[in-house]
Amino acid sequence: MVAIPAAGRVLGLDWGTRRIGLAVSDETQLIARPLATLTRRAGKRFPMPAFEAHLADLGPVGIVVGLPLDPAGNEGPAATEARALAHDLGARTHLPITLWDERMSTARALAAIREQGGSTRNRAEDVDALAAAILLQHFLESRRSA
Questions:
Q1: Taking a C-beta distance cutoff of 8 angstroms, is the pair 99, 67 a contact?
Q2: Rounded Cα gap, residues 96 and 141, in angstroms
Q3: Beta bridge partners of 33
Q4: How far is the C-alpha of 96 from the C-alpha of 86, rounded, in Å?
Q5: How crowded is residue 1: how many other Cβ atoms within 10 Å of its Cβ?
Q6: 110 DSSP 8-state letter
Q7: If you count DSSP H runs as helices and E runs as strands, how many of each does the chain have, helices first?
Q8: What are the pLDDT digits (tens) for 59-115?
Q9: Domain-by-domain residue ranges, the chain?
Q10: Going by CATH, does the domain composed of 10-145 fall within 1.10.10.10?
Q11: Distance between CA atoms of 53 and 62, rounded to whole angstroms?
């Protein structure tokens, strides 16, 4: 497994069965920001063309894929799908891929919106992109503290 380089943009994905939140770091890997939300229609594959458009535009040096674990830290069907996606993305993009525990990222995104006095009603796409930014930020901070 190849590690994500310490400089250059990193793309973060918050895996969901219907929506995939995307986030991106700055070149110095200090700050992650929400980017977009990709929608997957029921029974359809990952929206690769839309994802590849972001890759071409941003030129990331690596990808962090959220690993949806249950509260006890165990993997279920969603984690299996996220692992398969990470493998496919690595094979297709030839970029280093890291799986990262995404537990509570959506809950933290919802809390952040509410703390700022915002409503989460009808904002699922905003929440998913913010959740991706939260998981990517945690990944970036863990590398700085290591």
A1: yes
A2: 18
A3: 24
A4: 10
A5: 6
A6: H
A7: 4, 5
A8: 999 999 999 888 888 999 989 999 999 999 999 999 999 999 886 666 565 556 556
A9: 10-145
A10: no
A11: 15
